[in-house]
Amino acid sequence: TGVNQRRKDGVAHKEEKNQESMDEDTDMSKVMGFSSFGGTKKKARTFDLDSILEQTRKTAQERSRKVLEDREAAARGSDSSDEDRMPPPPPRPRPGPHPSTSSASHTKPAPDSDSDDSDSSDEGMIGPPLPPTHKEDPEEEFIGPPLPPKDSDDDSDDDEGEETESMDKRIPASHEITLEHGNRTVSALALDPSGSRLITGGYDYDIRFWDFAAMDASLHSFRTIQPCECHNIRSLAYTITGDMILIAAGNSQAKVYDRDGFEVMECAKGDQYLQDMAKTKGHVASLNGACWHPRTKGLFLTCSDDSTVRIWDVESEGKKHKTAFKARSQQGRKTGVTSCGFSRDGKLIVGGCEDGSIQIWDANLNVHTKFLQRTAHQNGAGITCVCFSYDNKALLSRGGDDTMKLWDIRSFKRPLNVATKLQCFYPMTDCTFSPDDKMVVTGTQVKKGEGNGKLVFLDRESFRTVDEMELEDTGVVRCLWHHRLNQIIVGCSNGKAKVFYDPNKSHKGAKQCVVKTKRNMKQVETVVHEQILTPHALPLFRENRRGRMAWKQLVKDRSDPLRSHRPDLPVSGAGAGGRLGATGSTLSSYIARNIAPNITDDSNPRESILRHAKDAEENPVYLGHVYKITQPDPKLAEKTLEQEIDEQEAKEKTLEQEIDEQEAKEKDTTPAWKKIKLA
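The chain above was modelled as a monomer; its predicted structure follows.
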């Protein structure tokens, strides 16, 4: 009975405690808006995901159908091109309960009832709050597939005009800066992948380094090197990582330098006496171009006038090429390769040859060409540049026959488009694609004093001229459109490099240096007058200025016996006062003076020899007794060698004169009676 009584007391105590806590929760919910701090158990809400997704799908279909109907009605009523543009689709609605599917438990209870407040607090949702319902304008949203293209001719004309206008506006050429390379043609350009550094090479054998981030408005290069001595620079290229530079010059050995301009390796030179060019270690004729592999670091390609294209590896230190591809003409003879390049994926190698052909090899098979076009350009004019498009389907070639052609490598029999009347005087004239693959760019040159060169932009699809930029009194040799900077760099024939950019469309590059003010030179860096520096001009040996103080110092020095002491005169004779004479009084000087005197004899050497002729005849010492029996009477040469040579030359001259006279007589056809009459 005692135990049962204690149990009843405990249950009653718990009920009282629960009632007190409920009263506290009710008071808290009235004051603060929530009933507890999480101590009570709440029931988690449950959702039917299948029904939610199905309802969302139906709603999206209804909205799409409505938008399509509105667009078709608007298209019939107006032909303007602005209404044809499709607005961007709205963000997809997040899956969640639709307002129409919400249960009664989601409704907010009335605040009048205390019991309703406590029930709603107990059955409230656990987790993050639901996203707010987003009401969109049906005219601005679009869900579903894009609208079909219009078939109207007016719409197509409007679209073409807009496309042409947009292409013209895509060219970043509103501003330009000029970099002074030198006085001769800029024949090579290269930008690193990040676009921070530019290198230029030219016919003056120099390579200049330009850093856009470090330059100011003065636009000075920070380094100049001459890697190939007296050979002009043909090609420059950065690796895909930008840490090495490939240099191809007029010699037969390509070089690799690091980013700061220090040599890393030099390719080997081949044996020019070998007939098979694949057996040599390297090129045997001047290089025409070079480029890096677009995917593999350390591999690069070179082409030369020795009719080969070679792949090298930096790890081999240039001791021997890795693979050699031999170009052949239609007759099977050697033909020089004037330009080369990799495809964008690095699987194909293209070479433009001197006979006007384009030969493409598989990078892994060097026996036969994979694609071949013999009549791509005029025979003998050469191909100055070959370039693959970014989509790796088209090939652009620039020829010395003043043409540029676009090829589809899938159908390599005839070009897709041809541009003519593009004057070309340099063997490295460039052509390239725009970063969006919609345009092609090339340059033209003119003779000195005959006009202006042009930078020509053409539409890739139709080869219609989009824009032409004239450069005053110079020609465009190299052109480069960097995909990251969206800036165009041009190498000119007057020794300058120009950078075209647009402040709104371009990024970094030239924009970084033009905003920096020109740095003022310090006073120590300015030399007003030319100075000749001598050792006595240093402060340690500098004399005091002439003046009253200097005169006092001079008088003071003259009164000092040590400072005013006259220097000792040179000693003549044997010496005196502990000083040796000019001839010296030592044993060595005595021997040199007495035993080995310096005697100069100005007499005739012939007379000196003949003085001993009588003694030699009476007492022969060396050779006299040898010829005493066989040749008792000596026979000397009557004439010297010079006299004999002179006589021989005189005889030959006389003989030539006689021969000439004889030939003249034979050629004379005058009759004898006429000669007698004339005589």
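The chain is about 25% helix and 25% strand.
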